[in-house]
Design brief:
The chain is an alpha/beta fold. It has helices at residues 20-29, 60-75, 86-89; strands at 2-6, 33-39, 49-54, 80-83. A four-stranded parallel β-sheet has the order 3-2-1-4, sandwiched between helices.
């Protein structure tokens, strides 16, 4: 199975999701393909997890367009999609 996890920060460092997504992605990667989409220039790399990031330094409109296009591309191949903090992701 291919899981796609979309989150504004990876691994999250604020709020209730602190560390949860990293633990979840590592656990799922043992038996499945896992891709994490996030914003940032230097997202933390996790063994067995493919991390895709869109730079926060881009203008907001361009960043949202690029993120949406990449999300559509990745979602076509995913069996499950999880979005954490959807409002912050855009």
């Amino acid at each position: 199975m291919h899981f796609l996890i979309v989150t504004p920060i990876y691994p999250p460092d604020l709020g209730r999701l602190t560390g949860y997504l990293k633990i979840l992605s590592v656990h799922l990667a043992k038996n499945h393909k896992v891709t994490v989409m996030t914003y940032g220039d230097l997202p933390e790399q996790t063994p067995g997890v493919r991390v895709l990031s869109i730079s926060k330094r881009l203008p907001t409109a361009l960043r949202l367009i690029l993120f949406t296009i990449r999300l559509w591309q990745e979602a076509r191949h995913a069996d499950a999609l999880t979005v954490c903090d959807g409002a912050a992701v855009g």
